[in-house]
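Much of our argument rests on the idea that a fold can be written as discrete symbols. In the encoding step, the backbone of a single protein was reduced to a row of integers, each denoting a local shape. This step matters because it turns folding into a mapping between discrete strings. For completeness, the protein is quoted in full, as a sequence line and a line of structure tokens:
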Amino acid sequence: MLINKGKHRRSSKAVRVATLAGVAGAAVAVPLMGATSASAASVATWEKVAQCESSGNWSINTGNGYYGGLQFSNSSWAAAGGTKYAARADLATKEQQIAVAEKLLAMQGPGAWGCAAAGGLTSGGPAADVNPSGSTVKKSQGTEARKQTEGSTKKSAPVREKAEKKAEKAQPAAPQHSHRSGDTYTVKSGDTLAKIAKAHGTNWKALYAANKSVVGGNPNLIFPGQKLSV
């Protein structure tokens, strides 16, 4: 916990930064405390610290002036840039709280937390693998997920291509319009209305209805040279 006057906490550097510099003066106070960007700790280490500080409750707000799993005061939360995530630490995600704690650790060192020793918190540990904009992210998992997505896309491409070709084959071929001349057909020897209609993708009744004035009253009697509308 970022300690000040908690029952089991001694005065800490983190609280003194907020007291002396305030939110607006945090940028000035950092170099005076000998900040180092190399300070960091693993997620497991921060979880141990949080277990000691708040019993591992990252959303805790008991009204004692300290918030979240790592028990930030509002001034220390703001000094380390936490307000870009939430107004108070208890309103931020675990990952966001750890990201802000990393910055505060670089500013103040492990002495900012009364439970630093219990959690094994030091200034030179490995950086926490967290994504403040979401949840903890493992690079290997992200890479594997991308590979699986790409592989699925590549496998589905041939399937789609086969389906498209099959659909093309299933489409009926366009009727062969032999003897056509524009929108008319010239009757040849041996033709019947049924034969002509089939060649033009229609039926003899429709063809007869469209050409009754040419054919006359008997649809079974047509003559070579007659021009039918098709």
Residues 3-37, 135-141, 172-181 have pLDDT under 50 and may be disordered. The first strand starts at residue 180 and ends at 181. The CA atoms of residues 12 and 112 lie 5 Å apart.
